[in-house]
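P.,

For your records, the input lines for the assembly:
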Amino acid sequence: MSPSGDELQCYLSVDPEDVKDGVMWWHEQRAMFPQLSCMACDYLSIPSE
Amino acid sequence: MDLIDKVLTTSSDSSKYSLSICASLAISKRTLSKYYNKAGESDVYRIAMSIPLPFLSLIYIFLIAIHLVLHPCHKLEYFKRNGWDEVLIETARNIVQDEFDRSYCSMDIEGDRSTANTTQTLSNIAVGCYFTNPYFFSNNYMYRLPLRPHPKTCSIVSWMSHPCPHRETNFNVTFLWILKM
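Structure tokens returned:
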């Protein structure tokens, strides 16, 4: 399995949390998910308004 | 954009409002036009506009899947709660996995914590989509996604007529159609 698979699998193995600001959450988790957090912040920060 | 322009134009000429309001509306219209024209000048916007609708829908689906799976309050639970079967959930997961492996897996985290270069194609198209549908990728909107009836238990017509934000319908119906292809 690729290292990225480990990160995604680890992330998905935990139940969802009641998080309003996804980008901030990922920023706080960047040590645990160094690469996945980059991807998440890229996608979750696409502007909307 | 046409509607906004029309409303601002008619309102700024209207005698219903005071002079100061009319002036503000006119300035707002000018500012909006300025940025809208700049959007039209960008390569991203032109690329997004030149993509045939079915493919654009496909990009929507990819982005929505990535959004949902990577939002810590949804992950794969959104799909499970809505009764999507395992194959579809696996598909959503694979979309994220593939994009991850393609663009982020080999990123040098120490050297560069910024956006992965190879993601620019998809991300730029996403920005293009944003111009066509500004609320589509709203984080808040994602957070508020309501539970939806299982798409397989009702006809597509009754399903579409179910009251819900049209963008979500658009997403789900498109997803359904893609799966039927």
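Two observations worth noting. The interface with chain A takes residues 63, 66-67, 69-77, 93, 96-97, 99-101, 103-105, 107, 109, 113, 115-116, 119, 123, 126-127, 130, 134-143 of chain B (CB under 8 Å). Chain B has a mean pLDDT of 65.

Regards
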